[in-house]
Amino acid sequence: MTIDPVAKPWFIRKMNAQPSAPRTARVRVRDELTREIKDVARLQVAAQGTAGLSLRAVARETGMGSSTVYRYFPSRDRLLTALIVDAYDAVGAAAEQAESAVRRADVLGRWMSLVQAVRGWAVAHPQEYAMIFGSPVPGYRAPADTVDPAVRIPLIMLQILSDAVESGRVLPPDNRPIPRVVRVDLKPIRDTVAPMLSDRHLAAALTAWTQLIGSIGFELFGHLNNVIHDYEAYFNYQMSGIALNLGLKESQGRSFNKAVPGLG
User: Fold this and answer.
1) 126 and 233 both lie in a single domain
2) Which residue range(s) make up the domain with 163?
3) CB under 8 Å to 145, separation ≥6 — which residues?
4) pTM as predicted
5) Region class of 150: left (phi > 0), else alpha (psi between -120 and 50), else beta
6) Could you tell me the sign of the dihedral formed by the alpha carbons of 65, 67, 69, 72, in that order?
């Protein structure tokens, strides 16, 4: 997915939630029809991929006239954006719920709960995972509406690492020099959302994010077929290694053997 280059970077966007007004009968009907259109569109994406998404086909499946569907979603890209936002929000909510259930001091446990929740959602929704983390859809440019939902998981990761640094539950990152151009990219992230983190911590966090998404993609898209037979065990082993690379230290009463199923 390609982000519109004129959109503001995710780390300087703020979400200004407003109290919602009571829903009228008309709004409820609109919400129900919108949900029905999106449900049918998801089935279409599951069967044919995102490139095969068609408003006319969705209209046929829902029994609505094409003009009705177009009133709700004026273009295929608008419908695709709605599906993308829903997918990002769903996996983000799963990750947030899992991570928030762990003691704040247990940074290793929070990390493992986060990544396991992301993988669990991906395994249950492989087509939606492919839609947001797979190959770009030809001709589609994601609008700024997708940015805030897309960064829910990275923000949790940065918070875990920031809490670890603040509490002293993190080891120093490796001392490899970071290219100046990369440090320039990292500075606004640190200044805006992660002031506790050094350039090396931020670089490690970004590496962990790409490894998480790539590892799940390798599993879902069949790149580990006939190589790894217990994907969950291998995933947990990988993610515990990434935790070590991040420098996350074991907390009192929590060891890697306890945090990572299958170890020991």
Assistant:
1) yes
2) 85-259
3) 81, 85
4) 0.84
5) alpha
6) negative
Q: Grade residue 95 by pLDDT with cuts at 50, 70 and 90.
A: very high
One domain, residues 109 and 186? yes
Q: Are 38 and 82 in contact (CB under 8 A)?
A: yes
Identify the CA nearest to 243 among candidates 137, 139, 170.
170
Does residue 135 sit in the same domain as residue 194?
A: yes
Count of CB atoms within 10 A of residue 170's CB? 22
Q: Which of 8, 257, 22, 218 is nearest to 123 (CA)?
A: 218
Q: Is 87 helix (H, G, I), strand (E, B) or coil?
A: helix
Whether residue 143 sits in one domain with residue 99: yes
Nearest to 83 by CA among 50, 57, 123: 50
The pLDDT of residue 14 is 42
Distance CA 118, CA 87 (A): 12
| Rounded CA separation 106/30 (Å) | 44
Q: CATH no. for residue 52?
A: 1.10.10
Query: In the predicted model, what is the mean pLDDT of the chain?
Result: 86
Q: What band does 17 get if pLDDT is binned at 50, 70 and 90?
A: very low
Q: Residue 175 contacts by C-beta under 8 Å, 6 or more apart in sequence?
A: 200
